[in-house]
Amino acid sequence: MKFQLDQPQGGNTISRHDGQCVWVNGEPHKQSLLVPWAGVVQAWPVARFEDLTEAHFAQILALKPELVIFGSGAKIRFPRPALYRSLIEARIGIETMDLAAACRTYNVLASEGRAVLAALLLECE
Question: Is 68 part of any domain?
Fold first, then answer.
């Protein structure tokens, strides 16, 4: 019997999170970040939920995902729809979850080969 490690079809995997840090492909990130299904993980310059602007969601739009998983931090909080209007108009789905659920959901969807992007808010205290 031959054993092979399953590798996700996407290029990025969230391997761990603890609320203050998220590890993507084994690399720690201590600030908010965008994790595309494949390609470069990007810093997302937002430190607090209250600081979210349309420009933050425009940065997501530029990566052209089919679905965005927004990890809103330790608890689930929904941004105003006006902030992500550009995603709606481009017919890009967005789901909001707490950070832990967002990390799990992203990994499942990325492993299925979906063009998913995790927008993870790590709030600086």
Answer: yes
